[in-house]
Amino acid sequence: MIHKTLTPDDIFQCKQCGDCCTGYGGTYLSPGDIRDIAEFIQTDSEQFLEKYCQSSGGRPVIRVGPSGKCVFFHDETQCTIHPVKPRMCRAWPFIDAILKAPGNWNIMGQACPGIKTGVPHDQVQACVKKEVEALDKARKDADK
Ligand code: SF4
Ligand code: SF4
C-alpha cells in the first residue's frame, strides 16, 4: 500500500481555542525572545522580565494573568505579541521533543484539538523536522 506523504497542514490546523495559552509555566523565553518582546512592547529587557515574567526551574517564563491565561492573551484578539511571540509558541506543535519521542504527538493531541492524532510516527517526525528547519531559518534571517 502506498501512503500519501503528509504535510504539516495535514496533521495540524489551529482551532484558535486558546487552550495552549492557558496555565502556568509553559512558556519559556530564550534571550532572543526576551529582547524581541521587550522591544515590541517598548520597554527594556530588565523591565520586561520584572513585570511580565517569573522564574520556573531557574528559567524565565511568561506570567499567567488572573484569567489563568498568559498575560499576553486577549479573549478577542488572542496573542497580543503575535509577531514576536516566543519560539516555543511559534513552533507549537512542531517542537523538537517530538523528534526524540514521537509518542508525545498523540499525548499533545489530547490537549490541543488542532492536532491530528493516529498519524504514523515517521510522518509526524518528517513534518516536525521540516517546520523546525523553517523556523530556524526564519530566525537566522531575522538576525541578519
Ligand atoms: S490548543 Fe491547539 S488548537 Fe487550540 S489555540 Fe492552541 S494550537 Fe490552536
Ligand atoms: S505569548 Fe502569545 S501564543 Fe504564547 S502563550 Fe502567550 S498569548 Fe499564547
Q: What this model shows, in words?
A:
There is one protein chain. With 144 residues, the protein is mainly alpha-helical. The protein has one domain. It has helices spanning 8-11, 31-40, 45-52, 87-91, 97-100, 104-109, 121-143; strands spanning 53-56, 59-62, 73-74, 78-79. The strands form 2 sheets. The chain has a two-stranded antiparallel sheet. A hairpin with a 2-residue loop joins strand 1 and strand 2. Bound molecules: iron/sulfur cluster (2 copies).
What attributes characterize this protein structure?
144 residues, mainly alpha, two-stranded antiparallel ribbon, 7 helices, globular, binds iron/sulfur cluster
Instruction: Write down how many β-strands occur, each being a DSSP E stretch of 2 or more residues.
Output: 4
Portion in beta strands: 5-15%
Gyration radius from CA atoms, angstroms: 16 Å
Terminal CA distance reads: 45 Å
Name the helix and strand elements from N-terminus to C-terminus, one letter apiece: HHHEEEEHHHH
Q: What structural class do helix, strand and pairing data support?
A: mainly alpha
Main pleated-sheet profile:
2 strands, antiparallel
Which percent bin holds the helix content?
40-55%
Mean pLDDT over the full residue set: 91
Total tally of structural domains: 1
**In DSSP terms, counting alpha (H) and pi (I) runs of 4 or more, how many helices?**
7
- Return residue spans where pLDDT drops below 50 for at least 5 consecutive residues: none
Give the overall silhouette: globular
| Hetero compounds | iron/sulfur cluster
The strand line-up of the biggest sheet is 1-2
